[in-house]
Structures are given as structure tokens and as C-alpha cells.
Amino acid sequence: MTTMAQRPARHEVEVTGHLEHCDGRVEALRNLRIARCSAVRQRATTQRQLKALIVTAPEPVRAPLATRELIAVCAALRPDWARHDDPATAVKIASRSLARRHQHLAEEIDDLDELIEPLVQAINPALMTVNGIGPEVAG
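and the corresponding C-alpha cells:
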């Protein structure tokens, strides 16, 4: 599926066979945005998996996890790994694993954002000054 932002570039490639505005910074930005987009999708999937896991968990496990700070609470769980064959413990182990993956992906996204913003600013500084336009839209 082609997004509105990709259409001009795709059209240019179809017509000329290459992108006219393809300097090193633009290519670097494309590469970083690919990694960021992948991390965002994986983080959303991880969050959905975690919520589905908690919905099906036994009540004694589910009750303390029904919180706005779900990721932090689950990441801090300290299940007894020796009892991994118990369904309640297995839910805690899996929840902890998914929550820590979510945290790692969030950090990765933040790191990529720190790299993307200056690139977008260097490539198109005028667009970044427009109210409501950030690195995601301008990039």
C-alpha cells in the first residue's frame, strides 16, 4: 500500500528510473524511518499480545495487572521460574517478557527519533517551522 507521502517518489522512480533528490541524508533518513516504522508496529503488536494474555489470565493474576501502568507493572513482575508449569506463573513470565520487549522497543523508537529529527531539520528546515509539522510528517 502506498501512502500519500510515498506517491511522488514512486511516480518519479517509475518515470525516470531514479530519485532526483537522493543525497546521502535523504537515503539515511529513509533507512532510519524503515527501522522506526518496524519498531512502532512491533511495539503495538506486543501491547496487543500483552493485553490479550491478561484478559485470559486467571483472576488472581489479572486483578493486580488491571492498571494504567500495565507495562511498568508487568516488567517488574518477579515470577517463580521454577513453577513455570503453573498457568498463573506462566502468565506472569510471559507478561514480564512482553512488557520488557515493549519497553525495549519504546527506547529504540526514542533513539531513532533522536537521529531522525536533526536529519529532517537539515533536509527541509522550512517545513519544520510550520506549526503542527514535526519530523514524522516532514520526513
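(Above: one complete record from the training split.) Residues 25-122 form one domain.
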